[in-house]
Amino acid sequence: MTIEMLWEQDDPDAVLRNRFGFADAEAMSDWVTSSVERHWGVRVGFPERVVLSDSNALAWVRRDDKRLLLKWSVASDRFERLAFAAELTAWLGAQGLPVSAPVPTLAGEVQVTNDGVSMGLQRVIDGVHLSVEDADQVRAAGATLARLHDALHSYPLRDSHHEVLSPPAPLTEQVSGWLASEPSTVSPQARDALGQMLERVPADLPPMQIVQGDYRAANILCAGTEVVGVLDFEELRLDHRIVELARSAVMLGTLFRDWGPVSVSVQERFLDGYQAVQTLTDEELRWWPVLVCWYSMALVPPGDDPNGWGRAATEQLEHAAG
């Protein structure tokens, strides 16, 4: 069994003890196997692999020739969101969307909260993370996001869901507020150029809806040119679909470490794939270059920039200027 950190540099054994309360890897393995049998009635072997990230953990287990994934969290302030995300993902799976739908427990639940832990079980999807070098995969990712948005638009929200889904500030206010903060990672000239672009976009956009919240290569699995799995709906939120589309286009190539930007051509392929399924309004298309430039600028790190986010932001502004 391997135990590793998803992106942090901390010692995984210490994280197991200090965050998750396990004396050692063996104690964690016993807990995983007993939890799966207790709640799902499935006997599995010890985990083959465990990945830790913040207050979340994932354990890959096997029953005969079937691979399953137990995902749990000890962040109690997120338990309500996790339950909603599991419920929503199960609903999307029932609509035929390529998501990692949760396996219901013996009691018919899709997310279990017990002894300070919230957990869910999924079937492992065979696939590899999206490659932004594959034009067909990029287009397929755009088309899949459009189908997700279409389904999410019709999701039957209940009053209780609004405790999890709080709408963001108006979009113009978000961008202008960022510009007013005068971030030192981009030049005054670049900020001025974005401000001028912002003055020309319409105030009205189609209503906000539920969006996936973290649509990028790390959460997109492909087999050939087909998207076979969209993972991790835990960052779902209310927003405009063009906001998620632009943010995803900028961050499409990011995995777990050493995040880097993608080219303008990749972003446009992604947009083309989306529009092959869902036509954007003129207002949304006028927001596209503003949002792509904004997200590109916002990702420029302070100090060293080994992955070239600053160069990418400059290219975005030049492209938007025509």
Structure description:
With 322 residues, the chain is α+β, with helices and mostly antiparallel strands. It folds into two domains: 2-124, Phosphorylase Kinase, domain 1 (2-Layer Sandwich), CATH 3.30.200.20; 129-321, Aminoglycoside 3'-phosphotransferase, Chain: A, domain 2 (Alpha-Beta Complex), CATH 3.90.1200.10. The protein has helices at residues 12-18, 25-40, 79-94, 135-153, 171-180, 188-199, 241-251, 264-275, 282-298, 309-321, and strands spanning 2-5, 49-53, 56-63, 66-73, 112-114, 117-123, 128-129, 209-211, 220-223, 226-230, 237-239. The strands form three sheets. Strands 1-2-3-4-6-5 form a six-stranded mixed beta sheet, sandwiched between helices. The chain has a three-stranded antiparallel beta sheet with strand order 7-9-10, covered by helices on one side. Helix 7 (241-251) packs antiparallel against helix 8, helix 7 (241-251) packs across helix 9 and helix 9 packs antiparallel against helix 10 (309-321). The N and C termini lie far apart (53 Å). The model has no long low-confidence stretch (mean pLDDT 95).
